[in-house]
Amino acid sequence: MELVVFDLDGTLLNRDAAISDFTRDTLQRLAQRDIAYTVATGRTLHASRDILRGHGFRLPHVFKNGVVIWHPEADSFSHRQVLTTSELARVVAGCLANGLAPFVFTIEGDSEHVVYHAPLRSKAEQFVVNEYTITRGIRAEPLEALPDNAEISNVSAIGSRVRVEAVIDVVRDEPHLVAYSGVAIEAKDLAWLDVHHSDASKGGAVITLKEMLGADRVVCFGDSDNDVSMFELADESYAPANAKSHVKDRATEIIGHHDEDGIARFLRERFDL
């Protein structure tokens, strides 16, 4: 059994952060052939649920770069890699010192995400809160309401590249934290930041899935820094033409652009769909 694992943004999804009609049909063909497939993404469950619904993603999903594994049938998380109180304090202080409002994500119960945030300082931050609460249905609370025993999955922020890089410099001093950043979807002159525990990685979570499902081989697709750990452990790894250069260097092969159904076209040839 081969397990196919997709990154979402910049990989399986097009520039509109959606699954195209051609890719949807390709996923249906995979399902009809009983080819196992799932996702490993930096997104949360709530940010992915509507996108994945109706496309045959029945196996466990990897969210927040390996912080949690989501089991659709059980409607619950497993393999949680959460931040300690001191680690959280370090990241929050770094964000605030650099003029960014930290968004602290927690896991409450078996499946609910709640985001706690500092006072908002920009239109982009307000947009993010609206996206979480209105579009994705995530409950948002002020940071001071964060429970002492909260399970912290990750801390995110949005702002200028300079401010985001300054926070990343702070995180580098923490041995058990890892930070990722990239161009923000909300505005090309802004960057996003995501910080989580260093024990969490897409690669580690995918190996857990491989063992859990009894798969013999892993075939993965990704385009960015957070996919490298997955590439290093997979039997085959493929980077779309739009991927970062150092990710391409680690790939088995470079395939078509994500906005030209590159992954779906490759799958049809690879699996004779």
Largest sheet descriptor: 6 strands, mixed
What is the overall shape? globular
Strand order of the largest sheet: 8-7-6-9-11-10
Rg over CA atoms: 18 Å
Annotated CATH architecture of the largest domain: 3-Layer(aba) Sandwich
Query: Looking at CATH, which topology of the largest domain would you report?
Result: Rossmann fold
Uncertain ranges: none
Number of helices: 10
Say which CATH homologous superfamily of the largest domain is assigned. Answer: HAD superfamily/HAD-like
Number of domains: 2
Summarize the structure.
This protein is of the alpha/beta class and about 270 residues long. It has helices at about 10, 20-30, 45-50, 85-95, 125-135, 160-170, 200-215, 230-235, 245-250, 260-270; strands at about 1-5, 35-40, 60-65, 70, 75-80, 105-110, 110-115, 140, 150-160, 175-185, 190-195, 215-220, 235-240, 255. It folds into two domains: about 1-80 and about 200-270, Rossmann fold (3-Layer(aba) Sandwich); about 85-195, 2-Layer Sandwich (Hypothetical Protein, Haloacid Dehalogenase-like Hydrolase, Chain: A, domain 2), CATH 3.30.1240.10.
